[in-house]
Amino acid sequence: MGVKVVERRGPKKKTSPRRRRHSGTLGATLFVLLSVVFALALLLSYLALFFNPTQYPVPMFFGLYFIPIVLLNVLMLVIALLRRRMAVLIPIVALIPSLFLVDRFVRFGQEEPVLAGKDVKVLSYNLGRYAAGGRKVTSNEAVAGVRRFLVDQDADIVCLQEFMSPDTLSLGAYLPDYPYQARHLFKGERYFGNVTLSKYPIRETQALTFPQSRNLSLVTDIDVDGRTLRVYNCHLESYSISFTALIKKLFHKESFTDEVVQVHERVHVATRRRSEQVELLLRSEAESPWPNLVCGDFNDTPISYTYHKLIQTKKDSFVESGNGFSSTYSVLWPMLRVDYILLPQEWAAAHHETFRIPWSDHYPVTTTVLIEQ
Known about the structure:
This protein has ten helices and 14 strands. Helices cover 36% and strands 25% of the residues. It has a six-stranded mixed sheet with strand order 4-5-3-2-14-13. It has a six-stranded mixed sheet with strand order 6-7-8-9-12-10.
């Protein structure tokens, strides 16, 4: 007959109500602090629209990361709702203004307007000098891919930025046939710059160049069936930051620290130059006798001083007739939208599309513009 062994357990330790209250209070306090930090970050991003980054650079950095900051505030809102915390008011207040801005980044279910008028298809594409954005694509493959894409799209007006050619004699080999062409190319190891192609006669061309920069806006006056429109093919100052190189140097502390310092300096210089370029562009627009179509690579997001200034008298073709994500930059997709087609208020955009193709670090955008009769 076996012997039954009875295991005696000591009394259970009870968690002190005071300790539970202390732990709960600490967690609630940390949650509130995080909510306030994320809310303040979002409020600072809104200020990027109104403050010139040359004088007030801090809001610009928060505006650049508008989408992830919005998502963090949405996360805090969901957690607060699930836990029934009073702190739910913090993300709600912070998110309210974003309801009027989020359509600059993403739109769904938008129907194309049915409007009368002369329709002109416009295409804008930063070719990235045929470097394919660091992808495993050769420059020859990128050239052929771009040519095929432009031929397939058959746009009436094509605005290209960072076009590159080894010499002026071989330009035809890099571009599809268009009866009217305008270009302004800088000479380096190769020729590079902006090119505008048109099915309609180009009456006049000028290059709006910027001080201390090889960025520019190529300005063309185009006769569309007796109506003249002025097209600004823009490439504004870029940050010249390689995110890939920065991440690789993260594992080498000394070089990463040096790179961060250099990045800060490049951002400061680029921001100052881009603000000056926007002012020159606006001054030129104000002097134009014709309706102005402004497109190209602005190197800034819709939550930026650049966009806010340029959109004052314009319509954004994506906001008017786009669907899905508006991002035009392959790095950190779908956060960064930097390529635009802006049209006069009295015109309409019947269709807007972004093409995720691998021939550049940018994605091309097209829109069908309906010119007022």
